[in-house]
Specification:
The protein has 191 residues and is an alpha+beta fold. The chain is built from four helices and nine strands. A hairpin with a 2-residue loop joins strand 4 and strand 5.
Amino acid sequence: MNISTMAASTLRPMTTGIELADFMASHGGSLGGTFHCPVYMGVRMLWDYDTDECFSAEGVILPEAEHLKPQLRLIADEVLRETGVQAGMDGILVKVKDSPCHFRIIDLASPELSLWRQVNLLTDLAASLESELPHVRPAQHFHTPSVKSEKQLTRWLKTWKRPGLGGIYIKEAEMIYSPGVSSSQWCFVKV
């Protein structure tokens, strides 16, 4: 791999837990008290506020995401104005046939903002800036049921197996983002 294609961001590499059993064990064997959002088919991407880079989970620059930067900067500047916090964005780059790729935000990379503050803020911004954000949208978050048994878990996961969905992103209500460190507070589950 050519080192010149690697992101300069301090957020590289972004690592997240992927073992649902480990995540549940760290939460007392249940998914209750967590939140989840759908993860669309595509490439995991993080946009760094400081370096203005769009890169993959492996830290490789994604040139096909260049057209998203002004939209991501617009959202980030509004978040900064509203909260006083600089935040990068974590999400999924979705390729669209005969159209520029889209970006679904699943998280703001900022430890200062609680999950529900992030969700409400992104929802409000997406609504108020809709005409200026043709290719960027936040992913919808849902409260996760208290799933304790293997049977309940299998039944719950089955509802998420649908076309265009690559997985589920699960995290605690007050998730802390730690660049380059695997965390028991968030989990990406392939479906």
